[in-house]
Amino acid sequence: MAQRLALRRLLSLTPRGPPASPGRAFGTSAGRRSTFNVQDGSDFQDRVVNSPKPVVVDFHAQWCGPCKILGPRLEKMVAKQEGKVVMAKVDIDDHTDLAIEYEVSAVPTVLAMKNGDVVDKFVGIKDEDQLEAFLKKLIGA
Amino acid sequence: MEMNGLAPVPDSYDYDLIVIGGGSGGLAAAKEAAKYEKKVMVLDFVKPTPQGSSWGLGGTCVNVGCIPKKLMHQAALLGQALQDSRKFGWQFTEEVKHNWMTMTESVQNYIGSLNWGYRVALRDNKVTYENAYGEFVGPHTIKATNKRGVEKLYTAERFLIATGERPRYLGIPGDKEYCISSDDLFSLPYCPGKTLVVGASYVALECAGFLAGLGLDVTVMVRSILLRGFDQDMANKIGEYMKEHGVNFIREFVPTKVEQLEEGTPGRLKVTAKSTTGDQIIEGEYNTVLLAIGRDPCTRKIGLDKVGVNINEKTGKIPVSDEEQTNVPYIYAVGDILQDKLELTPVAIQAGRLLVRRLYAGATTKCDYVNVPTTVFTPLEYGACGYSEETAVEKFGEENIEVYHSHFWPLEWTVPSRDNNKCYAKIICNIQDNERVIGFHVLGPNAGEVTQGFAAAIKCGMTKEQLDNTIGIHPVCAEVFTTLSVTKRSGESTLVSGC
């Protein structure tokens, strides 16, 4: 996707998700604190692979229509889990190495990770009930 | 291991094949080579335009060529369809307007998915990809520089140059500072507004065409003829149609300077131009100036001199054998940079694939550059395969060719009362060879779809009689080709009045 246009979209349009924030949740306003944008490979290592809590990783792209629907929906369902799971967002064009390492082909691809391992995964859009079940399974298992 | 009867080659290179350029030709060749278990690397790097535009993996066609062009052409066609629709009973009271940003974002989103698709395809085929600028530094050795300036050296047994071309600038004051090219147009983050298109290439006419179709005020400044190299009878009809549909033409002028009157998105530019036939000077004011005067091969700064690859010094093109080999036996080239070959995506893809099969799978088939069909996506589309009328006359002699032609009126245009006797069909036959069809030309909607099938027939050596024996499909535009009877030689009228 052409870079001048992508930059303008970043600067002018409404933000796609909550700004990056520390991983620790304090219970209140859990929505904002339970989701963050991965900054680079070592950030991923610290906050996803080494995370004490289970993590859902949302691989998305600016040019992907369905991602714009799934992203907010997943964030909402993660927020409802009261801090038991956090969500990491990875833009596959910014972090292609990560996307390739985790074998992402199509987007959105969502991975469920626990103790650094991928324990579950889905590709494409899901509705709220399906997401709830996905998250509950990750937390409970 | 011997190769082509030359001295044995050591088995110690980093890669079997390094492809420089991740466009249509380069990617097709790389993926094909990987199928034969070869160790392949693709280097792709886009140097930003003077305006700062850049793009991802896939080359010109995907990012700043065929794909966005056809999508924007479609946007313009839909505008026309909306107008026609009222006559077919659709009722809507509001004025229909076009939003440039909505269209451009949709187009760029699709391109983004293609860029990613190519990354995945290379990964799945186990081809190494680096977003780095490749240049030769010595025999079998290439230096790859990424956007942070980090350099790495790689060696390979063979190389494929597929670096493509970039738009040419005029070399006048203000050209790089204020003008845009097709490299910028398809991702322009603001509507271009009143636009001057400089050039008469298919890029110029296609862009002018869809910009006008979207409702913009468009002027095309032409130095001499339209669509050089194409059948001029057809080129003139294309120009006439565009003129009748609101595109302004300034003929026989060239810009001499571009100045900025006001900054903005878009701003205001003043263009001064000089006549090519006299001393007359004119000035005009536009929001955007789009240069489409030609494209130059990216062959001058990739170290070809370090490895002794000959290029045409004047044009930058690389002469190759009919097996796409340069004068250096282990270096090959494919795509738009080739001298005396066609600048088309499917040609580059086919040439790349066949080359790789000859190198690694023992195949012998060479790329056939004859009778390659093309389509120009101007507002009235033009599909062609084989000889233009001029070239046929030159090669065979006027008395030895028979030109059959006819106008036609697409059924879909009748109800909304659109342009009768503008669409046109023409075939050129070789009298001395059973009236074999050696040239096919169609001006009308869906010209590409119409032409594709006839290209296969021409490859099979179809004659006029076989064409006449083919029964038409009704009611479609293409059926006109099955009932051509009027020759140019007879001088009879070809105008039609309906079914």
Description of the molecule:
Chain A has 141 residues and is an alpha/beta fold. Chain A has one domain (35-139): Glutaredoxin (3-Layer(aba) Sandwich), CATH 3.40.30. Chain A is built from six helices and five strands. Chain A has helices at 3-12, 30-33, 41-49, 65-79, 96-101, 128-140, and strands at 35-37, 55-60, 86-91, 109-114, 117-123. A five-stranded mixed β-sheet of chain A has the order 1-3-2-4-5, sandwiched between helices. In chain A, helix 4 (65-79) packs across helix 6 (128-140). The longest helix of chain A is centred in the middle third of the chain and has 15 residues, at 65-79. The model of chain A is unreliable at 13-31 (pLDDT under 50). Chain B has 499 residues and is an alpha/beta fold. Chain B folds into three domains: 15-64 and 103-164 and 298-361, FAD/NAD(P)-binding domain; 168-293, FAD/NAD(P)-binding domain (3-Layer(bba) Sandwich); 380-490, FAD/NAD-linked reductase, C-terminal dimerisation domain (Enolase-like, domain 1, 2-Layer Sandwich). Helices cover 29% and strands 24% of the residues of chain B. Chain B has 14 helices and 22 strands. Chain B has helices at 24-35, 59-64, 66-85, 100-124, 175-178, 182-185, 202-213, 232-244, 304-307, 345-360, 389-396, 411-414, 447-459, 464-468, and strands at 15-20, 40-43, 128-130, 132-138, 141-146, 151-161, 165-167, 180-181, 195-198, 218-222, 248-251, 253-262, 268-275, 281-286, 288-291, 295-297, 331-333, 374-376, 382-386, 401-408, 423-430, 436-443. In chain B, the strands form five sheets. In chain B, strands 1, 2, 3, 4, 5, 6 and 17 form a seven-stranded mixed β-sheet that branches. In chain B, helix 3 runs antiparallel to helix 4. The longest helix of chain B is centred in the N-terminal third of the chain and has 25 residues, at 100-124. The N and C termini of chain B lie far apart (68 Å). The relative contact order of chain B is 0.11. Mean pLDDT of chain B is 95; it is low at 1-9. The A-B interface holds A 1-6, 8-9, 61-65, 92-93, 96, 100, 105, 107 and B 48, 51-56, 63-64, 104-105, 108-113, 115-116, 119-120, 123-124, 184, 186-189.
